[in-house]
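Self-study notes.
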Amino acid sequence: MNWKKRGLWLISIASGILLLGAWGLFGGEFEFIYSPSQAKIKNPEKTNLAQVQSGDDYSPETLELGRKMFYGETFGNEVFFTDILGAFDGPFTLANITKAVMALAGKGTTNLQVELAESFTVGDKTFQRGELFDTGLDVPKGAFFPLGVKIKVADGRLKAGISCAFCHAAVDKKTGDILQGVSNTDLNIGMILAMGTNTASYFSHTDIKSLQDYLTDPSREIMDSKGKRVLLPDPEALEKAVDRQIAEWPRGSIDTTLDYKNNPVQIPDTFTLGDHPYGWSGQGLIGPYQGLSAAINNAHAQNTDATSQMEISGPVLGIDKESYLGTLLQHAATPRYRYDPSTSEKPSEFMKRVDPTRDVIGLNELVPTPFYPKISYVSSVSLFQGTPGYRAWEQVNAVSAWMNTNLVPEPEVKVTAKTAGREIFERAGCIACHAGDYLTNNRVVPVEEVGTEPTRAKGFFLSEKYFSEPSLWSKDTPVPVPPNVKPVPLRVTDDQRNQLMLAWGHSPTKGGYKVPSLLGLYWSAPYLHDGGVAVGRDLEKQIGVSETVQKGIEPNPFNSLRAMVDRRLRERVVEANRKAKDITPHVTGEGHAYWVDEESGFTKEEQETMIYYLFSIQDPGEKPR
């Protein structure tokens, strides 16, 4: 891009931002999110859908809606992230994000570096004002804002929310084009959230088991749901504790369960066809699209709006509804949403008054399930995403259908001796679990058997306290759901129920992890659910998460996959992770002790041949590209 074109490009962005600001001051509303054209996609959608489950909808209209939802729908979560959590009111500001994108001059990046607006300390680490911060945000070539980030002007304020593409799509370093379904493995979610001014509103994703230690200010007294006078926690003390824990998430990882454990999981890819059950533990197993819709719903309904959990906070989290809501809202970034405990108003009354979606639970666009307010195997918060004017589950189901068309990009390595690699894979016994076209037997394995870090396998165990049999609204039910609509029960076989008990960590099990498909391994390093098996190009110095991911060093797919099957290299990885001070202790890279190394009778050359074979696996039924 020459200097004249670059100047015009920068002026156009700056002018647009000024217009947005002026529009907001006069009460106007506007929203924008980048939605790529097909020409910007490096890996096109699948053409072969012969193996999809009968009864699910893959019509062109549904697939087009799913694509639109994946890239552009936030279900209103910009309110939680901007107005409640204050993600952009601290060191990490929307103005400086825009400034960083402008500096790219249309070139794109896989790691937007943003200048910090103020100094920030979390734990024993300090970031200085003016320092460039590695966000891991991907900006496609020619885009005006990061992938998956919606900018919205509403209530006289500039806000930002996220769509599926924020986590589940990436930018190709060489071309600046988009890799659909490839997870953003360096997305610095933990630190971005920790820089928010009210990250305490995300406390249910940490190991803070009780708010008791933070009830130190007698002036923060409220009335709980039982008429008892109780205290809200000290907001500054709680903020520091939550910031410290969330900042321990490795890049490319996020905590997705309410289990009082700071145990983040790696963002998964969305090469979903054939990879059921869904979620790392396999909790998405029943319902539309073989459980994929349930897993997608959990990601948004639970994890992008903490207020959606207010009706289950008592029976599941053991925190009274009023205390829970008061804790979330007492230090909200925007005054409109900031609850004042000195008033006589209960937090739930205040919430109902300011809620932009006041006819439904939570701030996002959500709809009660037939079993509301209890939990079931199709919704961990008893709600599902739904925008008025659509039909029940229509948007989520469309995303499921479209994600099942995500095609694995070709690996950036040349592969030979595929047949020999397959023979080694089978001789090593890997085929016992990683079988079939998608190299998975589609089963949930008890955590005792697979041996990986165990806490996430029990991530949904608290839900057992408040559980119901699963059911759905019929597909033609409008949103909002009219009164007196009869639900449709979901049939659960004995085998499915046993698998679901493992996936949800319900007694008497200790939980389990699903056998994932091995398609797309080249693109998904580091490995295991905790992303703990990370090795860089340097086999001496770049071992473990702290020496790769946390330093902005991309894990090498070949060396990381070698650590999955070579016990001596893995021992070094696990040891390095255990010594690390900058990641949560629940990221270990341990377990899955199935070796293809010299001690198990394989040469180094055979090990390498098998690794290259695993990189070569393409989607079944697709023509070679």
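Second protein, same conventions, sequence then structure:
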Amino acid sequence: MGREDYARAYRAGKKDYQARMLRGEKPTLAVLDDIMPEKGHYHEVPLGTIQVPIERIVGTKTVGRSNSFAGNFMPILRDSSEFAAKWANLSEYQKNEGIQDAIKVYEYMNKFYVEEGNKRVSVMKYFGAVSILGNVIRIVPQRTDEKENRIYFEFLDFYQAAPINYIWFSREGSFAKLQKIVGKEPGEEWTKDELLKFSALYTRFGAEYNEEGGSKLAITQGDAFLAFITLYGYDEVDEKTTNELNELIKKSWEEFELLQEQGDIDLKMEPSHEKKPKPLLSMLLPLSGPEVKAAFIYEKTPGTSAWTYAHELGRLYLEQTFPDEVSTVAYENGTEENVEGLIADAIQSGCNLIFTTTPPFVQASVKAAIANPDVKILNCSLNTSHRYIRTYYSRMHEAKFLMGAIAGAMAENNRLTYIADYPIFGSIANINAFALGAKMINPRAKVYLVWSSMKETDMEKEMRETASACISGRDMVIPEEASRFFGIYHVEGGHPRNLAMPLYHWGKFYEELIRTIMDGTWKYDDNASTTKAINYWWGISAGVIDVVCSRHLPIGTRRLVELLKHTISAEEFNPFSGILYSQNGVVQDDPNRVMLPEEIMTMDWLAENVIGSIPKKEELKEQAEPVIKQQGITSGS
């Protein structure tokens, strides 16, 4: 029987050897001595005798035995060799007694290289063992700026709290994210029961994931597992039966495929105007009822939130624009705890289009979309990478540039204050665009940055001390508030005099999205983006962003705003073009370069004429947590 096992293992080894040769890869085992850092550039840490995950054993310590095995650790020496006889005997021993002796192995970058016990590893891999007992010495390299090195040191920090060596990620921040998702504080040690629970769940997930073909995806099993429990919840997934787990993995497969794209997003910068002809019959027959029933799910109410009020105006605009084709319903006071129920209620009531209007609702949106593939769900967030939903946002930084130009022109003392809310994707671009607009008109303009979401911040005191001539406050207010502290304003005698305000025209946004559904363009976007998340990011040119000027504004300044608005709309000018300076020096030194949309979305620097800094998440108020968790620039810190 041992000889038969060797013959099968030999065939598997030869097959793997030839496949690697055809791909131009080394066909035999990797050798640690060939890739080790130079002496003096690493140190050794004995880990003692531990369980070593079989799948992470990838090679040998020295070159001596590496050529006896293919890259998959299956033997490639003929069955007449002494090596084959010893391998066959070990195979029989494993079946009758079970291999118990520990191998000697080195760990480097969380991969393992065998010094003693190569045949034992080969036999155990052949029989599909999960782990093998090993006496391990860890090789710890010096820190570098290479991505893999940074991930490894994140692993070392994680390992101190949870000695888990069988999971690996391809993205930075994943180990810290895993620690948080399982309910542990940074650095908090795991109990033995918690380690056993995790191991069992990870093994169950891996069996179902690989059965569906997960090993063929260009991501690690850890990447897929982390995405899965982030979406469905760690404890919730642990309670699933094997059949339920399998069904969820199948339904979520496009999310795993999307991870291969490293978060690539198909940005739709303008509404698509490609029309699909409607069938003649549908043109002749009258509609029997509304084609679209849309639900809008709000975090607050239009009476308490300017953001919600702006979307509510968009919903009402939609009903007026499509009185016969579209009906809508609004859900207020959504939270991360109840939003799944609100979405479910909307679907139950027949809604086939759902807008969740705030970033913290994105996970619930994805779960609902996976469970209800016939319902179109969109989440209002920026730079969010999910395949089952689409996201949408406005290029508000274009309007902020115009607002900055106005403020720069009207600031007699060259001092401006910008009140920001959360340090999230897009908000930093808004601040910088405002600062660049001010500097273009007034080279001496300084922008004093105030964060309304910071703890222990006396905004009124800060603004008094700054004594700015112009203040950029909230974008808009709700009707119930009599306040005039919004947009760009002067403060004279304690009272604001408004000069201009930016405008989110969500109604126009929703109208354009509805038209893509009605004319068939919606599905074209999917066909062109089969492996990418789709994000609509429209601006002034699409009519979804604008600036409204006050009569208090001089006519010359109003004409300047119209000129700048035209050049931005016609794509003749981009606020983030040419040479750009941050507080720390040159960001972009090419006078002819325009920043990529992705660079604008994710910028984490402040323009040189901004006085202030980007706060860390621990400096922010508690209510900022849900937004920062999903969209925060500082979420990785």
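Instructor comment on the second fold: The chain has a mean pLDDT of 91.
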